[in-house]
Amino acid sequence: MIFTAPKIIAGIISTIWAFTTFLGVASNLPETNSNIIPAAYYEAVLPASSTTVAPTTTVTTIATCDDALQLALNLGFPADQLGTLDLVMHRESRCQTTAHNLSDPNSGSYGLTQINGFWCLPNSQWPIGWLQEKGILEECSDLFNATISLRATLAIYNNSKWAPWATAN
């Protein structure tokens, strides 16, 4: 039997396809042509309640402020607070996940709601940082990820309400 390159390649591709199909991997992945993961995927992957474990599936960018609000709602943000969250996101970052204000103290403010470095830097009370202690992120730059930023916003809101954001008052 003679093995030619096309037969070998076809065999490899067939084996990979069969293996992933067998494991069910392909059916559990979000669509790759979009940066936004459908809400149904969150419901299947992420718990509805607040958690102290950083998610493994996250949205790094969003297309609009409405997308951010829907993501916040999916992550457990109280529906009656979405108006204030919308105000904060518009005022602080214009809903840009990569917003970084370096002029703020404590290494600046990060992400959608401009969370100050105070919340993610080590200090005397929180040796690895408050948000790290809560299991929400590993470093301040993780706040440029929309999901992590909104989880952090929710944790800070649950701890301090809107006090850290002067724009919410």
Q: In words, what does this structure look like?
A:
The protein has a three-stranded antiparallel beta sheet with strand order 1-2-3. It has 169 residues and is mainly alpha-helical. Helix 4 packs across helix 5. Strand 2 and strand 3 form a beta hairpin. It is globular. The chain is built from seven helices and three strands, in the order H-H-H-H-H-E-E-E-H-H. Helices cover 42% and strands 4% of the residues.
Task: Tell me briefly what this model is.
The protein is mainly alpha-helical and 169 residues long. It is 42% helix and 4% strand.
Give the helices and strands as they follow along the chain: HHHHHEEEHH
Helix content: 40-55%
Tally the helices: 7
Biggest sheet record: 3 strands, antiparallel
Element layout with pairings:
Layout: H1 5-23, H2 25-28, H3 39-45, H4 65-74, H5 82-93, E1 100-101, E2 109-110, E3 115-116, H6 130-133, H7 146-160
What are the main properties of this structure?
single chain, 3-stranded antiparallel beta sheet, 3 strands, 42% helix
